[in-house]
Amino acid sequence: MKSRAIDAAANRSREAALQLELLEKDIRRGVSALERGDFVEIDDEGLDTLLDELVSLPAPKR
Questions:
Q1: Structural domain boundaries of the chain?
Q2: Using CA atoms, how far apart are residues 24 and 33, in angstroms rounded to an integer?
Q3: What contacts 17, CB < 8 A, 6 or more positions away?
Q4: Are 62 and 22 in contact (CB under 8 A)?
Q5: If you ran DSSP here, which 8-state letter would residue 43 be given?
Q6: Which runs of consecutive H residues, i.e. helices, occur in 1-62?
């Protein structure tokens, strides 16, 4: 019979693997966007404004 600790460790391992998979997908999308030239260059002031706007947005749903 497996212990609860082993089950919990296995669950954490599966969750970590899923998080890594999602991160890899996000990275691939970002690299693809950069390769397509799909980005905007902004100065320091523009970056501050953009970050302020992003903080106020709801988190995206996956």
A1: 4-56
A2: 14
A3: none
A4: yes
A5: -
A6: 4-36, 44-56
pTM over 0.90: no
Q: Which residues contact 7 (CB under 8 A, 6 or more apart)?
A: none
Give dist(CA 47, CA 31) in Å, integer.
20
Query: Of 50, 51, 29, whose CA–CA distance to 38 is shortest?
Result: 29
Amino acid at 39: F
- Report the alpha-carbon angle 42-44-46, nearest 5: 50
Integer Cα distance of 29 and 23 in angstroms? 10
Tens digit of pLDDT for each residue in 3-36?
A: 998 999 999 999 999 999 999 999 999 999 999 9
Q: Please, what is the Cα angle at 5 between 4 and 6, to 5 degrees?
A: 90
